[in-house]
Amino acid sequence: AQTVTQSQPEMSVQEAETVTLSCTYDTSENNYYLFWYKQPPSRQMILVIRQEAYKQQNATENRFSVNFQKAAKSFSLKISDSQLGDTAMYFCAFPNFGNEKLTFGTGTRLTIIP
Amino acid sequence: ETGVTQSPTHLIKTRGQQVTLRCSSQSGHNTVSWYQQALGQGPQFIFQYYREEENGRGNFPPRFSGLQFPNYSSELNVNALELDDSALYLCASSRRTSGKETQYFGPGTRLLVL
Description:
Chain A is mostly beta strands and 114 residues long. Helix content of chain A is 0%, strand content 52%. In chain B, the strands form 2 sheets. In chain B, strands 2, 4, 5, 6, 9, 10 and 11 form a 7-stranded mixed sheet that branches. Chain B has a 4-stranded antiparallel sheet with strand order 1-3-8-7, with no helix packed on it. The radius of gyration of chain B is 13 Å and the shape is globular. The model of chain B has no long low-confidence stretch (mean pLDDT 93). Chain A binds chain B through residues 33, 35, 37, 42-47, 50, 52, 91, 95-107, and chain B through 2, 31, 33, 35, 41-45, 48, 50, 55-56, 58, 88, 90, 92, 94, 96, 99-108, 110.
């Protein structure tokens, strides 16, 4: 069974700074993919970024990028030029092969300070 | 906006009652998954429906049941409500093609059991 670990329950940074959220996972699969989701106070779970395990290149979406280390089973999210709207819970998620069941980490509460 | 809608947004029930939560999938999506998110935790997978058939179930008792309709909308039914069923219930839809689909979430239904 997959496990997902987020070791930072809370983080806070000043607006415009860069912050990195950590995630580690455990799986016996070789061909998989990973997600970061964002859940603001509005509760809507919003997809931030997706990484394919077979790709060596790290995924990037505007100010969001990942550092994917397959051998280390590490999948961290970097937010550059942080904005007040980035304040949210951030979840790392791993889909189960076959039915896409997502296993989520416990989340990191990120606060951007004006 | 993900195109996934849920109703109602909030609900209050008493222990022992039954509840039905509804989800409308994003257009073109044929798979829906339901998750339970207790306060301060990551979402937990309840079950998934693909083309009106259950396709995977998490560690939830049989009093949690579901339906998917021909238009791919879905219901989550919970019988004999318990206090611990108080949570945010999220549905997520996807379009099954290669088995590596991204799930898009609705805004959730907040259930309070008194």
